Fold:
Amino acid sequence: MAYKRQIDRLPIPPADAKVHNVTCHYCIVGCGYKAYTWPRNKQGTPENNAFGVNLNEQQGAMGTWVNPSMYNIVKQDGKDVHLMVVPDDDCVVNSGLGSIRGARMAENRPSEITLTQQQRLTDPMVWRNGVWQPTSWDDALDLVARVTAKILAEYGEDELLVSMFDHGGSAGGYENTWATGKLYFQSMKVKNCRIHNRPGYNSEVHSSRDMGVGELNYSYSDYEVTDTIFVVGANPMETQTNLFLNHMVPGMQNGAKFIMVDPRRTVTVNAAEEVAGKENVLHLAITPGTDMVLFNALLTHIVDNGWIDKEFIANSTFQGGEAVAEDSGQPAGLGSLDYAMETCRTSLGEAAEICGVSKDDIVKVAEWIAKPHDDGSRRKCVTAYEKGIIWGNDNYRTIGALVNISLATGNIGREGGGCCRLGGHQEGYYRPSDAHVGRPATYFDRHLIRGGGKVYHIWACDHYKTTLNAAEFKRVLKKRADMVKEAMDAAAGGTREELVDAIVAAVNAGGLFVVDMDIIHSQIGQNAHVILPACEANEMNLTSMNGERRLRLSEKYMDPYGQSKPDCLIADGIAQNMERVLNEMGNDEYADQFKGYDWETEEDAFMDGYHQGNPEVTYERLRAMGNNGVQEPVVGYENGKLIGTPRLYADGKFDRHGREDKKALFCAAQWRGYAAEGKAREAANH
Amino acid sequence: MKRCKGMVDVGRRQFLRGGAMATAGAAVAAVAPAQEAKAAPALAQIDYPSNRLANVADLKVNEPVDIEYPDADSPGVLLKLGQSVEGGVGPDGDIVAFSTLCPHKGFNMSYNGEDHTLNCPGHFSRFDVEAGGQQTWGHATSNVPQFTLRVDDKGDIYAEGCSDLIYGRMSNVL
Ligand code: SF4
Structure:
């Protein structure tokens, strides 16, 4: 039976309610919302209220309305206030649309009044006498610093393992990624580290970058003016909801064809058919893992029919055969179109057989992507992909084969074009160089499982739920962490020095000392010895960019829950304690590496990091840009406005690979079957 | 007298616990002019009209009847499902009524007799009328409001309440 809220009336925000810009933190789309807050004992009236509409009247479709999920009572400056977080009609990203995630932002805030999100961490905790005891920041950070400093000073920085998120939105953002980046890549040079969703410190879309094409290169508005929307291994109606509803749907209403490559039929396909008509939608339900063959056949058909953009290829892509050779650290050669065609060439018949789709459909897709209009003008096509191929078979070459098509048809850097991943979370990456990590990066999980490392710092990652071979990872980490817990229990009642010595002895015997930063008590946190509570977006000011590189400041409208803090200020606290402890240990030179963390607010961290590389951008200027923000890279500031960049590579110069010639490279994406051991057997048994 | 005090306390605790309801009570108090408030304290709950929608004899299985409740600006649907469902009224326990304004963005939904769902033309959300208006797929952050029904001795069906906030209103009764 359905859950009934049994709420039939909501308070009305008064005309003088405070209004804050909010970027939804739940997904990469980054929809704009307005947060209204006002004192508990104040209210508006139906005629006079913050929305400026007459609430005595029934509001029409797409009108102003507050679902009870958009309401809560939270703390602001220590006082209980009403909170409403409502989709913003004036934000170009979502035009007033909410989604099942974003429209619940208010009720997903921690509240001592309505008792929402009571699982949030409120206090630092240290493992003491067999349980986690709440404690002060000073006490917890002192223990973290003493153990970490001792291990690093005696055994080196390779003994520190770090899992750190590198995303925007939520509790990420430029502030927090900068802080952890500064701590581990500048003050230290940690190389045994990984990102929240993959067991190494590396890119998910290496090939696109190696070809010179950053993976978020378009503007969402490109979907509205294109001829064809080509989506691979993604389900945007569910997972990038308002990108689909507010940009892809208008594109189809303007006449765009819609192609979906996905082994399954999804709600996205169904919705596209309803909007565009079945005759304008093509779903290729290919055999899982065979995308590369399909892309190669499409490229071959497009090249053989001359539907390529010769001028673009001549001016913007590499011409001299092979530019980068394949080797053990380079999964495919890169070079000119001709060079790539030597290995990519695939007939329609081969592709039909391997991919399990008809030749006619492959031809139709190629035509929809690239066959010029009857008047001879070129077709525009937006290409979008996500985890279906990013985490799919032979992903380097597969993504390379897809980017090949966009490059050959001149569909990058132009209105109505683009070749982009759709993304999960927003981005907020600004860190010192990670070059010392090397390539290929340490296979982190295997290193930990094999006994590597003595201290482990975890920043909002829960690998127990998500990593590869999670069961083994969990078994080993638990075992190693339990050795330290037992040592800490045995040292109970002793001095701090005795406790630190006991921990060091335990990690030298194969144990692992675990420090977990998170907003909740996570599964991996069960095996931590110190737990530090972080706060989220809107309990702090937070900047991120969305899937079209739209940078916004999502404003703080409530207090951090309990004693929790922004991650950047936690990193700041760790650094300051490291400096103090190393000084006490007489290691002044090392201590000095931890200077430069005297931040009081998240804005200080932003100014120390992102602002240094992007001097035009400040909180004040971003606040003035509101929920429409500015698309990165920011290239200037004029008449009180930041000037952005609607799409990358508009000048036909490609630089993501760092090549001097600024020419894009094609990928020699030769099919080699299922690349991972056991995949063929798995597919056969399916 | 001890018992009376206890009752008051229970009532007070419940009142404080429901955040949204508590403030809703306050909303009414302030709208009413001060003198009136003194004369007659505002009520904590909305007063719903009791509106006759149809007679049991008028309904045929799986044939939706358009209704309006609690007023003409709030469209809904009255349904006889042919099998008893939780919350259903009438001799067969199968009569239910819902708002048809989608609690996502307020588009007027149509009834799909094949799988007994309300379907939104705006953004494709779907709600199961056999499960009390449960959203089975979509973007709404509440289930579709269900009207509270009563059937009298003559078989007349009355709507007298509503389970959730109706789209486009800050108060179900305007
Ligand atoms: S589509 Fe994404 S950003 Fe927009 S409201 Fe939904 S979760 Fe938030």
In short: Chain A has three domains: 18-108, 125-203+428-539+558-598, 217-426+657-684. The radius of gyration of chain A is 27 Å.
